[in-house]
Structure prediction request, 266 residues.
Amino acid sequence: MSYRTTPTDETDQRILTAARQLLDTNPEAAFTMDELAEASGISRATLYRRFGSRTALLQATAAEHGLDIDELAAPAIRERILEATRQALAQAGSVNFTIEQVAAEAGVGVATIYRHFGNKDSLLQALSDRLHPRRAAMQMLEQASGNLGTDLLRFASDALRFMYEYRDMAPVYFSGDSKIQDIFKTLRGDQNRTIDTLSRYLETQIQAGFIPTYQNAFDLATAFVGMLVGFAFIRASYTDDPLTPEQAAQTIVRIFLSGILDEETP
Prediction:
């Protein structure tokens, strides 16, 4: 199937300009058609009607702006390889999978994986980088509403959406495999920083009088993160009644606040 690679009118030009701007903003990200629709102010349906597919649109963008189509396609290929690596790692439960298995799952050649990542260790490190949790705790400090329940609910919902998305990796992440522990050591560092940041936030709430002064901020942060992990990974293995991240967040925050705001027990 052949694709039109040159703009035919002002609307096409507007679309291709927006596509180029998205690529310039973050060349490593494979923008979606929804993102392009928002950036160009043109509906998603119109984008598909004029170009047929995202591939065709990238080809037209490359032709219009003198870009390398292989470089434009690289982020999407990298994402396919990383997703295939994640599946291979989860299925094996260890690093004992082959590059050939990843290539077959991703639908690319072995040489393509080596061209993009160099070797298996670098591929696994790239996957670890991709799995870094969102900066929910830091954003809580930067954008705190002043309402303890509202802030915790926002943090919990964001953290749980991330955990749900990568729930299949839990057996791998919590395994005792030393090679896996070494690969994911940066993730454990992020987890510690999240608890530290959440602890600082809770300390401000204690100082402001919203949490009783006898409570320990670090213990509270550790307990809250533990509840998130429990609902995301443990509850799912014991029940056929799944909760959405938002429902789980509401339950966790309700239980957490009802506990920490009680009078001190002897």
Observations:
- The chain has three domains: 10-67, 71-130, 136-260.
- Residues 22 and 119 are 30 Å apart (CA to CA).
- The chain has a mean pLDDT of 79.
- Residues 10-67 form a domain with the Arc Repressor Mutant, subunit A fold (CATH 1.10.10).
